[in-house]
């Protein structure tokens, strides 16, 4: 019995995505009882852990920074699909869902993932060391995308409310796509060494030292299973979203909390992968995951919802309120001071995590 149990445990990364996909197929489009919600939640957690495992296999095969890019793109594509699907189902009440989810993703990645990674790395080695050039380039791109897509609509006057006009929305979508494309080219082609982990002395680490890379067949299998796991994560999250929405409404919480919960669910695989990388003294890999996810979230979501707004009913609200504008400004200022030296102590990690905590508290009690 123990041998069979160990065998099952060894194959859980393969079984978890398949089981989650089967549960998704059985529950899709159906209202769930509390018992089924618990089952779906367990499958959701298993799919998240499986996605992290397979992403690490793929990352080990292709190396950095390509591995971080694979997970960030995969998760963000699924996140965009979830947002558009929920907006199509929600009508006017979901007009600000894209803004709430994207801003939540920015706060979770730039303060949560970055803060946790710096804290774990600094506690392990006293000082967390990373490549300032690459991290500054990534953070500057995130700040620009967030400013153009989330801050600027609050101050435009062509359309009433915190919305873009049609021409402004097209500009924001094109700018997001172009900037994201330029960043990917910089990260993977022209200045790949800026995004590789570094030693305490500042030397670039271009190889992994913990195991031989998996075979191409194993990496392709993991890539396929990661896709199944991520699709299952989003599909199961959509299945439990009515329960989340009714729970938020019953608790008297703002509707924007739904966007926070969606972002937390979708970004959980990247958070776990980033913390694991920081524990292996690969803080740069963790920052690639966090900032790359923030950038992909804005760079892909805004063009997607801009295209979807042609057939979606209701307004598309993108502009942030005053409270969130202050939090975004603090995040940009603190993040800039964090990345400039190329090294951080536990203090910097704690500061970023305090900003995330402030965001969560204000989301629940605005």
From TrEMBL:
One cellular component term from this protein's GO annotations in UniProt: plasma membrane
Domain Sodium/calcium exchanger membrane region: 35-188, 222-363
Transmembrane segments: 35-54, 66-87, 102-123, 135-152, 164-185, 219-237, 249-268, 289-312, 318-340
Annotated GO MF terms: potassium:proton antiporter activity; sodium:proton antiporter activity
Keyword terms, alphabetized: Membrane, Transmembrane, Transmembrane helix
Membrane topology per record: Multi-pass membrane protein
Cellular location(s): Membrane
Listed Pfam families: Na_Ca_ex
Name by which UniProt lists this protein: Ionic transporter y4hA
Native species: Streptomyces mobaraensis
